[in-house]
Protein 1
Amino acid sequence: MKHGKWHKRQVDQSLPAWKVEFLRYKELKPIVSAVSGRPPSPAEFVALLDAEIEKINAFFIEQEEFFIIRHKELQVAIRDALARKAAVPEAAHEAEIAAIRREIVNFHGEMVLLLNYSSVNYIGLAKILKKYDKRTGAVLRLAVIETVLAQPFFTAEAVTLMVRECEAMMEAVFPTAPGEGQAAARRDREALAAAEQRIFRNTVAALLAMEDVRSGSSTRGRHSLPPLTLPDSEWLRSF
């Protein structure tokens, strides 16, 4: 599948309010690939990308801050629900825990979408830079990607940690004995597993894009990134 179609599919599968926050790959591609007319100068093109990166970072940080608050609220909700377990009827406790569990699953899903947002934008930047360098003979890709690797949207450390902690939180609210809640709990586990698979596939795509960027030049300079040697690139490409 061509990257443009893949990028559009990823954007379409995201939350409706997020769509305008992605890299504008569709708009940037014709600027770079125009058969007639002059493509933007390196300075002009970097300015276009800087504006996109600033937009992506601003959105990512805003969502990250919201998730941090929500994460703490869910931790408090679980603690309080477990603390009053003995003081409320069993049916009421199970209903409360089931509601919290659904909130955690939804929260986990939104964080997965944000990590996917990070991967999709990184891959898009790497692809459009590759097209620009090929079209113009410039050598922007390594220099720009070097700065991207330090951006909040790429490192995503807090969100990645919260995804793992969210999965640990689920253990506290899944029923441990057979009962009415088991079917719903099983569906929630399946939702988590599907989300994890999506993270894995898009992380693989980001790793392969990074390997391509780092192996893109036979010369080494101050903007060169060290080669990235993945354990088995052909195996990864099979996903």
Protein 2
Amino acid sequence: MAHKAAQWPSEETLLLWKREQARLKALMVDRDTEAWQRDPTFSGLQRVGGVDVSFVNGDSDRACASLVVLSYPELKVVYEDSHMVRLKAPYVSGFLAFREVPFLVELVQRLQEKEPGFMPQVLLVDGNGVLHQRGFGVACHLGVLTDLPCIGVAKKLLQVDGLENNSLHKEKIVLLQAGGDTFPLMGNSGTVLGMALKSHDHSTNPLYVSVGHRISLEVAVRLTHHCCRFRIPEPIRQADIRSRDYIRRTLGHPGSPAQRQERSQKEQRPKICPKDGPGAPAHQGRPPEDHGRDSITDLKDPQPGFQEQQKDQQLERTEHHEDSDL
């Protein structure tokens, strides 16, 4: 039987979503709450997490939700969990959280129940935090629901509150010379909504970092930079790689439907990785309206060198317009 795609929400549903965003926004904390955040070297920070939702090619409702936890500062994967999901809500600009966050919350809860010692002390989210139409993007939503410090990391500028990707903005980007260089994203309201960050010496386009929950903007930007071995922060990068690979492995199995289902169920169990980190398996992106996940097919932990630099440059070239919402 063919699956019926998620229908466009009614005006009543959209109103309910707005009210829920407003309710949760009142619970959001935009300051540092942890001792490690106040230490210049992040002493005490041992585990950083990343989340991702990758879509099955040609099916905007079937996806793989992935959570990884990395050691810090080594940035080695110590825990990973991926799960195939069927999204019930359609993509609506400004309301991405209602489509994806429930599955990410489930992954965090599963980790808390099964392996609490691997709980991340902070989550990096592929999307925006307070840099959002209503100041409450997917990183804020996930942070409030999990009560974890969260950072929004977007690859494209969300044009809200007068922010525009115009010639002036592009001139500012050119002035970013070295990894770690930044400039503030100040809207017409006079509020600094985030920072543009040149995350790597060799990256061309900046990242757009914003507060999600329980962290200050300054610390969010600094930690994001420290997590970048390449342009994309390693927690998000690894979650993306592994979610894509999980889709390939799950949907690419030979054998009968029963055999594929049995293998899929086995693979959906959380995985604790060896201390020195596993070889990283390698998104079909979000639905057509929201593409832009990093196109990385490397199945090994990255090693410094020309090949990885080429892959990271290819990653940038293959981005689409994912951050029209987030």
Protein 3
Amino acid sequence: MSHLLCRSTLAARFLPSSLTATSTLIRFKPLSPSSSPPPPRAPRMSTEAAASSSSSPSPSSAIDFLTLCRRLKTTKRAGWVLRDVQGPESIADHMYRMGVMALISADLPGVDRDKCVKMAIVHDIAEAIVGDITPSDGISKAEKSRREREAIEDMCKLLGGGPRAKEIKDLWLEYEECSSLEAKVVKDFDKIEMILQALEYEKEQGKDLDEFFQSTAGKFQTDVGKAWASEIISRRANTTKA
């Protein structure tokens, strides 16, 4: 077949009419093997995607870690068990509502609210291994802290190390040492959630859980903690009068 194509014929089929006024011949040179277009390259992973992939735990590590965290759903909060509360909340129940508290709280100067949410769902995570240790167990604060620190190390190893494990450990330590504004806020939420739960058990089961209110009186460090505690105490007083 000739490589000379009549422009008038070819253009009439593929080009706009404004470009087909002449019948000039166009010579099309066939591509030689050496001039063939290069094969398409496999898409390259973006820098962000590569970083994300390398920072994520493996599926095996993630599922092992999450399976261990199931204990937080099944372990009941010891304070309520010791006082014969029926259907007491679990550790996970407690942490979840604290996370919601951080989510709905007002913005505070210098406080990272998203960090508070993360800290709330991490602060008792070591209890998946050590359980809910209370003063009635006769274990010193120093020993309790030692056991929980060891548990955090074990859980982070189970997760495979890396940035995600480090974030969990850092958040837990920050809360434990109360070394930031966020930790102070979340410490207050821990007490708020406890006395709110105590009020609910008092109303639902006719319990006298005054010791929980006494143990937290005057210990709130933030404006939001003081305001929410005051609201709960006010409602309790109104319930008692009624």
